[in-house]
Amino acid sequence: MTDATSTEAALTAVPPRVALVTGGSGGIGRVSAERLAADGMSVAVHYAGNRARADEVVAAITAAGGSAIAVGGDVADEVAMAAVFARVEEAFGGIDVVVHTAGQMLLSPLVDFDLDALDAMLRTNIRGTVVVDQLAARRVRSGGAIINFSSTVTRLAIPGYTGYAATKGAVDAMTLILARELRGRDITVNAIAPGPTATPLFLDGKDDATIAALSAAPPLERLGRPEDIAEQVAFLAGPARWVNGQVVYVNGGIA
């Protein structure tokens, strides 16, 4: 290749696509961020309070040859998250994919649910999704994707999950409507609804018998792994241009 050809190729090279992963410092978010980076995207790893964990993800991505930065902010704070989006655009030139995994899961029978705890979960899971989706709808480039996170518990009616399932039902509604509101923008909007997945958030507080029962529930007879969910994230973020306005259940056939 001549110098002139090399220069021309450099000038016409397509820059990497850019993804922002909220809650990217741990669990499904971390594995999703690492998967998108492995697929060639530049990735912004979002955290709410633990900068050190986000820095670990960034270090792992860069050590593998990828490009990543850490960005922090409360997902329910529109000012903080606007600054996050601006930081990503400043670092990478734009945003193509937003993967919104950040959320809270607080469990209690409805009759005993502490209303202050419920308000906190509503703020993160519902208001936080509104804030992130609103900014994404304004700033994601044509050809991009917005991926929310729901949960299979919206279909399972498990006692103790009333509040959490209600917040994820709201995420489903927002996802389906936003996909239609973005008509003509060439931006897909979908939600992933994982089943029982072996993450710290899911395993916290569950005894061995409960985990064993949940592992046996899917026909595949195991808990999901974060990598199983990240595979679907990669699909919706990349080649799945004809999947739009859907809640995709990634649960091994549990429901």
List the defining traits of the structure above.
49% helix, alpha/beta, 7 strands, 255 residues, Rossmann fold
CATH architectural name: 3-Layer(aba) Sandwich
The helix/strand class is alpha/beta
Instruction: Give the CATH H-level superfamily.
Output: NAD(P)-binding Rossmann-like Domain
Outline, from the CA principal axes? globular
Task: Provide the fold topology.
Layout: H1 3-12, E1 18-22, H2 27-38, E2 42-47, H3 51-63, E3 67-72, H4 78-92, E4 95-100, H5 115-139, E5 140-149, H6 153-156, H7 162-181, E6 188-194, H8 200-203, H9 208-216, H10 226-237, E7 246-250
Parallel strand pairs: 1-2, 1-4, 2-3, 4-5, 5-6, 6-7
Please describe what this structure looks like:
The protein has 255 residues and is an alpha/beta fold. It has one domain: NAD(P)-binding Rossmann-like Domain (Rossmann fold, 3-Layer(aba) Sandwich), CATH 3.40.50. The protein has ten helices and seven strands. The protein has a seven-stranded parallel sheet, sandwiched between helices. Helix 5 links the parallel strand 4 (95-100) and strand 5 (140-149). Helix 2 (27-38) runs parallel beside helix 3 (51-63), helix 2 (27-38) crosses helix 10 and helix 4 (78-92) runs parallel beside helix 5 (115-139).
